[in-house]
Amino acid sequence: MYQCIVCGRTYSNDHDVEEPCKCGSKILIKIMETKKDSDISFNNRVENITVKSKGVFEINIQSLINKDTIVIKDESDIYYVKVPWDTDE
Amino acid sequence: MTIIDTISEQFNKMFKKIKNWFKTKNDVTLGFFGNTNVGKTSLANRICADAGVGQLGKISIIPHETREILRKEGITININGAKLSMNILDVPGVAIKVDYREFLNYGFSVDEAQQRAREATKGIVEALGALENVDAALIILDSTQDPKLQINITLLGAMEAREIPFIIVANKIDLENAKFEKIKKAFPEYPVIPISALTGKNMEQLYEKIGENFGD
Fold this sequence. Notes:
The structure holds 2 protein chains of 2 kinds.
Chain A: E1 2-4, E2 10-11, E3 28-30, H1 35-38, E4 49-53, E5 56-59, H2 61-66, E6 70-73, E7 79-82
Chain B: H1 3-21, E1 29-34, H2 40-51, E2 70-79, E3 82-90, E4 97-99, H3 101-104, H4 110-129, E5 136-142, H5 150-162, E6 166-171, H6 180-186, E7 192-194, H7 203-214
Parallel strand pairs in B: 1-3, 1-5, 5-6, 6-7
Antiparallel strand pairs in B: 2-3
């Protein structure tokens, strides 16, 4: 799999690396995903932090980098949204 | 992209340029980013020691030892006779999963480990937020690990997208299984400096690169 280093868009292994990303970036990097990384998929998820159980967290780094809003999903599938203008800890 | 987006983008670039004109060397805030346990705090401490100021943070083999941003201002390093002053932001290590069970092997109780995991997760959020507050960055990699970890790729992408100048620092070259060439080969477009924060090996080379890339 190839990934654009700027926007994070991914392409399959048969993608022509000479062809730029849809965002215009020309830098695509071949990704050899580690088992640990590929165990967690955040595709189409609204939350960027998932509480799997007490003391176990999954973090969607790409989403946290791109958005100001923090969305936490707890063990009971309840969502908590921390908006950028919320100053509470 | 609409005309308004284009104008807005151009305006932001111009504003950034104008803002930079009024900056002095003292304004350079250098962020230390990377996976956990790659030696960010060891490197920050090494730079502080070389600059003759006190230690920045505690070093430990326990993952997520740094769980909040550590800041040291007014670090001055001499580079080939010139002086570069900077502020250092040592940010918590970034990870895609924090599991309290990994702390249990280090003697923590379940309660302590769960609290530590909560703090580590908060630290990761703060670390990524710090991207907005740095002028330049060191992306620190462990030379004994696979360089193409998702975390490294994501961090490089974030730097590119924000136009933050950065240097990749391949740390821990003192270890027998270090493979600096693998990192160099993985990221041929970017400057990669091999160092050992532990022994101080190649620190001069890193300072020269910092001066070249981030100095005036």
